Amino acid sequence: MRLLLVEDDELLGDGLKVGLTQAGYRVEWLKDGRLANHALKAEQFDLVVLDIGLPEMSGIEVLNALRQRDNTTPVLLLTAYDAISDRINGLDAGADDYLVKPFDLDELLARLRAIVRRSTGRAVNLIEYNDITIDPSKHQISKAGTDVSLSQSEYQILHYLLSHTGKVATRQKLEELIHGWDSNSESNSLEVFIHHLRKKFDKDLIRTIRGVGYMVDKLS
Ligand code: CA
Description:
Elements: E1 2-6, H1 10-22, E2 26-30, H2 33-42, E3 47-51, H3 59-68, E4 75-79, H4 84-92, E5 97-100, H5 105-120, E6 127-129, E7 132-135, E8 140-143, E9 146-148, H6 152-163, E10 169-170, H7 171-179, H8 189-200, E11 207-209, E12 213-215
Parallel strand pairs: 1-2, 1-3, 3-4, 4-5
Antiparallel strand pairs: 6-7, 7-8, 8-9, 10-12, 11-12
Bound molecules: calcium ion (CA).
């Protein structure tokens, strides 16, 4: 899942980026509100962790602007103080949850899983497709009950395709997922990852939509 982290505190932001990446999120980290606002207009994220106290534009203003565009991406706010007015403003502006600093990384991860679960309307957050099961909370994929070991990028691609069956995932979307913004990976690596996934699962699982991207058929 692609996560936008907006935090101006270098130390905290750095720690969060590492922790969230280890938990399996594809993290983009920005350090001011205006840049975050631009990114949220231009790009699609699955999840946003947004500090309230930011330079240029506050987290509440970024959130207000996001919701005014009818964008329902789940947002978790971080508040520096135990300020009740901040929390009320944040929830009124359409935040899905908030955490008061300092907080525990495990609690943040649990709350992110919960808001993703709520936003996708799934009671449990397992994704199942024939004999393939993805457990995003553990970052685990199994085939017929046996765990399959995948690279980070392979996991991101398969997770995305199986969450959007019946829809074509464009090359651009998948490349964003696997490279983020600041990667220098070779342009052919998407094909390589798809090749590996077909070998590990089923050669017919992922269809190539020539000139557009890839797709996994909806189960009938
Ligand atoms: Ca701050």
